[in-house]
Structures are given as structure tokens and as C-alpha cells.
Amino acid sequence: MVQQTPRTVRWAGARRLWKLMLDTPQETVHMTSLANEHEERFVVADQRRFTWARCRTEIAPFITRHVTWRALASGDIKSKYRRTFLGPWWITVTNGITALIMGLVAGRFLGFDTKNYLPHFMVSITIWGFISSSISESCYIMINAGGMIKAVNMPILIHVMRMVQRNLIIFLHNMAVVPVIWLFFPWHVGFETLLCLPGLAIVYVFAVSASIIVGMVCVRYRDVPPVVGAVLQLLFFISPIIWVPSKIQGGELIVGLNPMAYLLAITRDPVMGIAPSALNWIGAVGFAGVLTAAMVYIYTRYRSRIVYWA
Fold first, then answer.
1. Do 132 and 39 share a domain, yes or no?
2. 17 occurs within a structural domain
3. Per-residue model confidence (pLDDT) at position 286
4. Same structural domain for residues 17 and 109?
5. pLDDT tens, residue by residue, 59-105
6. Which of 22, 166, 229, 266 is spaced 20 to 30 A from 36 at the CA atom?
7. Is residue 1 one of the residues assigned to a domain?
8. Does residue 202 contact residue 147 with C-beta atoms inside 8 Å?
9. Cα distances (angstroms) measured from residue 39 to each of 13, 26, 127
10. One domain, residues 100 and 20
């Protein structure tokens, strides 16, 4: 008979626990530890069941730890542009040059008036950059943070919020180009411009929810990130960013079927001095609300497994 050491027993117990977590989540697992010579009970079912108490506990770091993920995001930006002449304002300069060149060239090819097309393109591409960057970076955020997730007792939500907040800071720097364009190509600005603030809040909620869902799916299935990149490219071309719906045949139909168009409309139109329609608000709020509800359920139920997937 082979004598089992305490280390062998612990590994066997861990394997048994993991197998039961995957196969029979309703069971109560009993595992004996020789280190402290008493029986420990692990209730796996409670870790797999969605409850509102667990939901509040898991989502609470979004508010209670906001200082942490905001400070980490700010530190990422500062460390990236440390000891540079312009610092983070290099983001604004780079985005302004890129948007100016692309806006002028695309406007000429599509036959649009530069005075009207360049502001439309600049605001649209800046908003889209925030959404697409958050979703694309979320594909690897939990994979890259796998070592920290396993070693440090930190809410996993902080890693995603850090990334989204970093992209929000970049977005705000990029939006500084818009007033400069307004000086050369002025357009009407009124009280409806303030509507961009609730629109940006809805876009922010959407970006957070989408990033958490995509991050959890990608850390479980490592073949998904290339698919996400392809979908983002498709959404870029079918969204009213480089084209104006009223100038393209069938453009209104594409906008009506594209949820991203509603998110762009409630943030871009107020900046351009146009009040978004009620349909745009309903579409954006409904889309973001459904995605947020799905995120809360998925994150609450499967958060405990991320440490094994990462």
C-alpha cells in the first residue's frame, strides 16, 4: 500500500473539488485537510447560483473602489508619456493630425463638403475610438492580469475599470481637437450641446458592460479575440462614421438596424448642435440597459471561475 503524504492528499482534494465544480455544482463537497486535522466543507452550489446578495457584493467595487481604478488609470497615462515635452497632450496632437488627414481625404473621395463633413467625421471617429479601444483591449485584459488575479486578493472588476477609465482619459484628450476645428469651421452651438453629457454617460455604461462580458468570454475561450476584432471592423464600416446616412442610399436602413448608430447619435449630434431624436435615446438606453443586465448576471455567476481560466 502506497503511503500518501499531506501534499499528495491536498492535490487530490483540490482535483476532486475542481471536478465537482464542473460536473455536479449542486453537491456539497467535503474535503479533509491533514494540515489542521479537521474536516473543511466547501459549498460549491452557493458559488454558482445567482442571488441579489452576491450581485451587490460583486458589483460593489465599481463604487467602493473607484479611487483605486481611477488612480491606476491616471498612472498608466502619466507613465506612458513621462519625460516627454507635451506629456499626455501628444494624444490630442496625434489624433488631430490623423483625423484631419483622413477627414480631408475621405471627404474628397465621397464628395462631401469639407466644412460640414470634417466636424462630423472628427467627433464620430473620436467616440468610436473610445468604444472600439475599450472592447478590443478587454479581450486580453483578464488574460494579461492572470498572474495578479491569482496572487492578489483584488476585485477582478478593477482590472476592467482601470482599462475603460484609461480609454476615457484618452477620449477626453482627443475631444480637445473639436473646439479647434470649430474655430475654422464654426457650426451652431446651443443648450442642446449639454445633452452630450448624459449621452456620454450611456456610452460609458455600455463600454464597461461590453468590456466585462467580452473579457470573460475571451479569458475562457482564447479563440474569440480575433473574432471580436473582425466584428469591430465590420461595425466601423456599417456605422455612420465615415459616411452620412442622408447621403448614402440605404443609409437610414443600416442606421436603424445598427445599435452603435444610436450610441453615436446621442453623443455626436449634441456636439454638432443637433438635439438627438427620441428614437435615438430609446434605442441607446434600451441597448445599454439590456447589455448591462446581461453583464450583471454573467459576472455575478461566473466571476469565481475566472481565477481558474486566467
1. no
2. yes
3. 94
4. no
5. 777 777 888 888 988 888 888 777 777 777 777 788 778 777 777 77
6. 22
7. no
8. no
9. 12, 19, 55
10. no
Helices 114-144 and 259-271: crossing angle, nearest 10°? Answer: 130
Pair 61, 15 in one domain: no
Which range marks the domain in which residue 263 is found?
Answer: 52-309
Residue 108 maps to a domain: yes
Q: Among candidates 66, 293, 78, 74, which has minimal Cα distance to 158? A: 66
What is the tens place of the pLDDT at every residue in 240-276?
888 777 766 666 777 777 889 999 999 999 998 889 9
The count of other CB atoms within 10 Å of the CB of residue 43 is: 11
Contact at 8 Å (CB) between 139 and 228? yes
Is 43 a residue whose pLDDT tops 70? Answer: no
pLDDT at 39 > cutoff 90: no
Distance CA 244, CA 73 (A): 34
Same domain, 99 and 72: yes
Give the single-character DSSP code of 83.
Answer: T
Angle at 130 between CA 124 and CA 135, to 5 degrees: 125
Q: Which of 266, 300, 302, 307 is nearest to 284 (CA)?
A: 266
Sorting pLDDT into bands at 50, 70 and 90, what band is 36? very low
Q: Is the pLDDT of residue 32 over 50?
A: no
For residues 300 and 58, is the Cβ–Cβ distance under 8 A?
Answer: yes
Residue appearing with cell numbers 475610438:
129
Instruction: Label residue 137 by pLDDT band (50, 70, 90).
Output: very high
Please name the helix (run of DSSP H) or strand (run of DSSP E) that holds residue 40, with its range, or none: strand 38-43
Q: In this predicted structure, which of 100-109, 217-226, 230-239 has the lowest mean pLDDT?
A: 100-109
**pLDDT exceeds cutoff 70 at 4:** no
Judgement on whether residues 162 and 18 belong to the same structural domain of the protein = no
What is d(CA 37, CA 278) in angstroms, rounded to the nearest whole number?
66
Q: Do 20 and 84 belong together in one domain?
A: no
Residue 138 lies in a domain: yes
Q: Phi, psi at residue 198, to the nearest 5°? A: -65, -30
Q: Count of domains in the chain?
A: 2
**Rg (the chain; Cα; Å):** 24
